[in-house]
Write a structure and sequence with these properties.
Helix content: 25-40%
Distance between the termini: 27 Å
Number of strands: 11
Structural class: alpha/beta
Largest sheet: 11 strands, mixed
CATH architecture of the largest domain: 3-Layer(aba) Sandwich
Number of helices: 12
Number of domains: 2
Order of helices and strands: HEHEHEHEEHHEHEHEEEHEHHH
Length: 363
């Protein structure tokens, strides 16, 4: 990864994270013997439903160590979360994509001081699993062009030669494929369609977008709705944060000459092999995922979900609380908690240095 931003790492801002070192949220959430925390107040966040399981664990751990703090997170979806943050109705947002250059240029972040930049922190990294429900089949090997053809509606049967070609010995039924996509504005959709456009060799002709680009297939609201639709169907296929794959069949994606199943390790590998977006403010750590990488062991359908906050808040009441919460999320403990409870990939130490410097810059 290109790690030029914040060339001299700032001191770690972990006011509350230090208090958390004696309390692991994945150990039953037991209260510490004595809390020295002086933090108090309420934080409101909204956004990516992919972060929901991690946010529940993060919030439980942080509130246990800081009993006078409450944190509310509404998993309303990435698009809704960005709008909520823009309007000033939340202190922070969760988003499965960074703000675009044109959105940043338009500004209008109501919680932020005039002319303030924003910080975007890649604190939740997870593979996006291609999930399916096909009786008797637990896994499939597919290349990008075939996945794109399925979701574009040009591959319509499970025994299509393109599927059979990479799945020798698998009994594929003469059954219609029902692709399921998100009906809401979703960062998961944007990441998935970005992969299809970049890696399918022209089979997918639409631009990457959080809104599904055409009518067809079945639409479902949110991550839970999509997973339910795939689970309750027959011959269904969809895409979702891998933590929600459950017992559904999953796809190993062709990378170079191998088929790579999703895993936290493979997701972390593609993130570390990808550069930061250029032209961003120092605290804006947007990452441009290399969807066409052929490096061994990388899984290219990955979701990098961001925690977004003001570089400078118009009102300073919650600044210490925002910084402390984000510092906990970025800490080794916070990342391990999310990995245990949500199946995400912990960020690397080098990325943590950049994230810590960005948090430290918030005022």
């Amino acid at each position: 990864m290109n790690l030029k931003r914040f060339g001299v790492p700032a001191a770690v801002a972990v006011t509350a994270a230090l208090a958390l070192s004696s309390c692991a949220s994945n150990e039953g959430g037991a209260a510490p013997e004595e809390s020295a925390s002086t933090l108090a107040g309420n934080l409101v966040g909204a956004g990516a439903s992919s972060q929901d399981a991690a946010q529940q664990s993060w919030i439980a751990g942080f509130q246990t160590a800081n009993p006078d703090v409450t944190i509310d997170y509404d998993p309303s979806g990435s698009g809704a979360g960005r709008e909520t943050f823009l309007s000033g109705a939340s202190d922070f947002a969760g988003s499965d994509r960074a703000f675009k250059d044109e959105e940043l240029a338009a500004g209008g972040f109501q919680k932020c001081a005039p002319d303030s930049t924003i910080v975007e922190l890649p604190l939740y990294i997870s593979p996006i699993a291609v999930i399916f429900n096909l009786e008797g089949v637990d896994s499939l090997d597919l290349d990008a062009a075939t996945v794109a053809g399925i979701f574009a509606g040009t591959i319509t049967k499970w025994n299509d030669p393109a599927i059979a070609a990479t799945n020798e010995g698998v009994e594929l039924p003469d059954l219609a494929i029902t692709p399921v996509h998100r009906s809401d504005d979703s960062g998961t959709t944007e990441n998935f369609t970005e992969y299809l456009g970049a890696a399918s060799g022209g089979v997918w002709s639409w631009e990457a977008d959080g809104v599904w680009p055409f009518d067809g297939g079945e639409a479902a609201q949110g991550t839970s709705g999509l997973v339910d639709a795939v689970t309750n169907g027959n011959g269904t296929i969809g895409y979702a944060d891998a933590s929600r794959a459950g017992d559904l069949g999953t796809v190993a994606i062709k990378v170079g000459d191998e088929f790579v199943p999703y895993s936290p390790e493979a997701a972390a590998a593609i993130v570390d092999a990808s550069p930061f977006a250029e032209g961003r403010a120092d605290g804006d750590l947007a990452i441009e995922i290399d969807r066409t990488s052929e490096e061994a062991g990388v899984y290219p359908i990955v979701l990098v979900s961001y925690l977004i906050a003001c570089g400078e808040y118009a009102e300073t009441d919650h600044v210490e609380l925002v910084k402390s919460y984000l510092s906990y999320l970025a800490s080794v403990e916070g990342q391990e908690t999310a990995a245990t409870d949500a199946g995400s990939a912990p960020i690397s130490d080098s990325l943590r240095e950049k994230v810590t410097a960005a948090i430290d810059s918030i005022k």
